[in-house]
Amino acid sequence: MKFKVILLTCLLVLILILSSSLGVVGIEPMQVVAIILDFFKINIGISYTDVHEAVVMQIRLPRVFLAMLIGAVLSLCGLALQSVFRNPLADPNLIGIGSGASFAVVIFIVFGNLITPNLIKNLGPWSLSIAAFIGAFAAMVVVYKMGTRGNKTDIAVMLLAGIAINALGGALTGLVTLSANDDQLRSFTFWTLGSLAAANWTHVLTFLPIAFLTFFSVPRFARGLNALALGEADAQSMGFKTQGLKTRIMLISALGVGAAVSLSGIIGFVGLVVPHIFRLWQGPDNTKLMPLSILGGAFMLSAADLVSRTLAAPIELPVSVVTSILGAPFFMYLILKEKKKGNV
Amino acid sequence: MFKHLHIRKLTLQSRDFTILKNINLDLVPGKFTAIIGPNGAGKSSLLKTLSGEYKDYSGDIIWDDKSIKTRCDKELSTQRATLRQNFQMTFSFEVSEILEMGRYPHNKKCAENKAIIAEVISYLNLEKLLKKRYHTLSGGEQQRVQLARVLAQIWDAPQEAILLLDEPVSALDIRYQHQLLHLLQNLAKEKNWIILAVLHDLNQVMQYADQVLLLKKGEVLAFGDPIEVMTPENLMDSYHINASWIKHEEFELPTIKIQY
């Protein structure tokens, strides 16, 4: 476990430096280190130009940080939701959170601008996150309520409800797009495909408190979520307040995933696959799995983003495409391996 | 002072019919009580009501002179544990992790919890399973692991505890069935627990239970010594079966023979 945490942390530092150095403007890794250290007033005597510094500090670093934070939040929330719904298929997007959030954002952009042209600029970037949160939470509540009878959650019904919400959200978003202008259209495409290209420090700072809220609150429920794997009645007889636990996890996930969607659009696969990969590697105990999922999610999305913008440069591939291409084969390999051992 | 469990006029309704009807029962610590009765008699429902899963009942359940309605689940969780009929798990935890879950209700030091888990492991001979993943275990092994978790939960209960078991031997082979029932019989005495278990095999009940509760359509048909409760008349009345007792000079208790 300790080894895994150290390994992942090293990988994150590596990605941080690589992402800052690779791109259209080539910068030596050591120059990147010098630029970052210079920010902390440490001079290590390696020269670089102002352009290098601007590229690293204003474009690449915020993008890497945002990718890491969003990846970590998506994977941690995915993990928590899988435990709450007691189903390994409960990806945040599969149960409608993503489409709920993006629908709310689209509505907010189109109809918000009808009220005053610069509504979003005036309210600040937070307003989009709040809209996304409301959309995400509403979608999740509908899905959850539809799938719950008494105090039992019927997973099959719930997943079907998620599919319905996704279809409805997608269709309504499409409908609203018809009344959008060119600029708005471009940003919708961005939301539905998912991209980190627009990342800047304001985004990072907007998302940072939400990310830290999830990092510090969700792991506090790790034991309760473990107990929930035994069954709701068992968790209750062990003294856990299961209803409160579920509501809290859903609220936090809606906030985390909603905010992520409002900044980067819908990025698939991270919330589903990263927890799985680490569950197969470490086992399902949430007290250990949660820290690994945070680090692993951060690594997966920042690595995917690096690939997406360098593989076919100067064209950027949608980051979702890369997460799926990277994640799916690895996931399949793990499933086959575990199937042989009989663990799946 | 012993903690008695009194059930007073317990009635449980579902939407259109009565599951449990006016149940009155007094249980003293140190006894292993079997709950028997035909399917749908309300055995599991009674257990679920006692375990706190069903809360919408009328009447009262009084333990240690206090209504359990007035006590919180968190507090009760260190003194009352339930082994449910369904022991499926969503994710394939390691056996040792599942046993640790049994200690979640306790705010004790890690070493103390580990010592208790170790005691339970040796009590149930689970050493070989510890590092295995749950989904690789057989049904019987899974059931024994869950039993160990439940025992760990109340192992150090300050005074008496309540242990509720819904068909605890359903997945076990015949040897483990007898081992477990023997163990429950002893545990009740050693630990002074109230143990209630839903069982199906009448001869096992005869052999191991200190007392028997026979339910019929949500009501108590008989309660007391196995030999007094499981008479051919009572068995006919509840199960509609032709049962007769066979006595053997070597054994004190009769064998119940059923002709269909």
Task: Give a summary of the structure in a few sentences.
The complex is a heterodimer of chains A (344) and B (260). With 344 residues, chain A is mostly helical.
Could you explain how this protein is built, in words?
The complex is a heterodimer of chains A (344) and B (260). With 344 residues, chain A is an all-alpha fold. Chain A has 15 helices and two strands. The two termini of chain A are 21 Å apart. The model of chain A has no long low-confidence stretch (mean pLDDT 85). Chain B folds into two domains: 1-79 and 158-230, Rossmann fold (3-Layer(aba) Sandwich), CATH 3.40.50; 94-156, no CATH class. Helix content of chain B is 34%, strand content 27%. Chain B is built from nine helices and twelve strands. Chain B has helices at residues 43-51, 73-76, 95-101, 110-124, 139-154, 174-191, 202-208, 226-229, 232-239; strands at 5-13, 18-27, 31-36, 57-63, 66-67, 80-83, 162-166, 194-198, 211-216, 219-224, 242-246, 255-259. In chain B, a hairpin with a 2-residue loop joins strand 9 (211-216) and strand 10 (219-224). In chain B, helix 4 packs across helix 5. The longest helix of chain B has 18 residues, at 174-191. The mean pLDDT of chain B is 92.
Largest interface summary: A-B, 26 and 34 residues
CATH architecture of the largest domain in chain B: 3-Layer(aba) Sandwich
Overall morphology of chain B: globular
CATH class of chain A equals: Mainly Alpha
Mean pLDDT of chain A: 85
CATH topology category name of the largest domain in chain B: Rossmann fold
Query: What radius of gyration of chain A results from the CA coordinates?
Result: 21 Å
Average residue-wise pLDDT of chain B: 92
CATH topological fold name of chain A: ABC transporter involved in vitamin B12 uptake, BtuC
Counting helices, strands and paired strands, the structural category of chain A is mainly alpha
Molecular shape of chain A: globular
Give the CATH class of the largest domain in chain B: Alpha Beta
User: Using DSSP, what is the number of strands of chain A?
Assistant: 2
Query: Helical residue percent of chain A?
Result: over 70%
In percent, how much strand structure appears in the residues of chain A? under 5%
Major β-sheet profile of chain A: 2 strands, antiparallel
Work out the count of structural domains of chain B.
Answer: 2
